[in-house]
Specification:
Largest sheet: 7 strands, mixed
Strand order of the largest sheet: 1-9-8-5-4-2-3
Distance between the termini: 15 Å
Structural class: alpha/beta
Shape: globular
Order of helices and strands: HHHEHEHEHEHEEEEEHHHEEHHEH
Number of helices: 13
């Protein structure tokens, strides 16, 4: 590591937490004093507030984002054997959620510029068993709502949004989670809105879906000791909900900080496009909330992605890869496809690199990152 340069971490949560530490400590202390830990007031308040922020009526907190998908699909009427179209370019949790709902995931390729689901490819995957599509709003950018709504109408499909990386993202007048029948969010600590552990939520405008989701998350019981569904125990606890409710009013400001950082990255990286360094395309303007800032080290580059990542590491710059191995090439999921089935996804997995991105990332740090990328071609 170059001792002349400070380290640029991939994520720095302390910049968000330190200014509001006293608020967080206060709500935690209050809940401990009240002994109100499960399905209590703090959860109800956060569910209402987050749903309203997303522009929908109902929020149902669960233990994690994966459960929000699995239980949410069941609440939306998905049955065992139903086929659900999902992008091959996603985190494995999307597939796990579908499988836990006993549905069948059908993978389709992604758009090479945005890394989002390719709806043209999705159209070729429709069968008589297809019941839903899960658009994954990847990296903080929504899939086009108008295109999704047209697609779903054409094939009579449920839209179930995976918005785990898209807290308050927007596009074409829609907030993430507001254009489908329901949407799943994750509150993993590094998300734009993160808890102090695992957490998730389903949001919806459908009262029946909301009620069934509440039942499924709580042992299948709409009321105590009356079990009408085969449910599970998956509840966002009050401590996490209280922390999230403290953080929620700051989320739009934090998202704007990410957008400004991304804009500066874009400006500084522009001269490197001819060397094969190309940011993932933003088709959402300021609606992209940049959970991740991702570049491609394309075939035009004289160095590959792994070499660039190593060189940045030598300069004290932490990076990530989201995701290095496609879902259908993972050992446990090879039944979902073969090498070459989803060429854009497979190419992206070899080329993408996630750069440091978080609220409070300074222009000086961004300059350091880009300078290190540029100098990697000369070393």
């Amino acid at each position: 590591m170059n001792s002349r340069q400070p380290q640029v971490s991939f994520v720095n949560l302390s910049l968000q937490h330190e200014p509001i530490q006293s608020q967080i400590q206060q709500v935690i202390t209050e809940i401990i004093a009240q002994g109100d830990f499960i399905l209590g007031q703090a959860l109800a308040e956060f569910e209402t507030a987050f749903a309203a922020a997303c522009g929908v009526k109902y929020g149902i907190g669960v233990a994690c984002g994966t459960d929000a998908i699995a239980l949410g699909l069941q609440a939306c009427g998905i049955h065992p054997g139903d086929e659900i179209i999902i992008p091959a370019n996603t985190f494995i949790a999307t597939i796990i959620g579908v499988m836990q709902a006993k549905a069948t995931p059908i993978l389709v390729d992604c758009d090479p510029e945005t890394a989002l689901i390719d709806l043209t490819a999705a159209a070729t995957a429709i069968t008589s068993k297809t019941k839903a599509i899960i658009p994954v709003h990847l990296y903080g950018q929504m899939v086009s709502p108008t295109q999704l709504l047209d697609f779903a109408k054409s094939y009579n499909l449920i839209i179930f949004e995976d918005a785990a990386q898209a807290h308050l993202a927007s596009r074409e007048g829609y907030r993430a989670g507001s254009c489908g029948k329901a949407a799943a969010f994750s509150f993993y600590p590094s998300k734009n809105l993160g808890s102090f552990g695992d957490g998730g939520m389903l949001i919806t405008n459908d009262a029946e879906v909301a009620q069934k989701m509440r039942t499924l998350r709580n042992y299948g019981a709409p009321s105590k000791y009356l079990h009408t569904e085969i449910g599970t125990n998956s509840r966002l606890d009050n401590l996490q909900a209280a922390v999230l409710n403290v953080k929620l009013p700051y989320l739009e400001t934090w998202n704007r900080g990410r957008t400004l950082a991304a804009q500066y990255y874009n400006t500084l990286l522009e001269p490197l496009k001819h060397k094969g360094i190309v940011p993932i395309a933003n088709h959402s303007s300021s609606g992209h909330i940049y959970h991740l800032y991702v570049i491609q080290v394309t075939e035009k580059s004289s160095i590959n992605r792994n070499t660039l990542q190593a060189k940045l590491g030598e300069n004290g710059i932490q990076t990530g890869i989201h995701y290095p191995v496609p879902c259908h090439l993972q050992p446990a999921y090879q039944n979902l496809g073969n090498p070459g089935d989803f060429p854009h996804t497979e190419t992206l997995c070899q080329q993408i690199l996630s750069l440091p991105m978080y609220p409070g990332l300074s222009n000086t740090q961004i300059e350091q990152v880009v300078e290190a990328i540029a100098s990697s071609f000369n070393s």
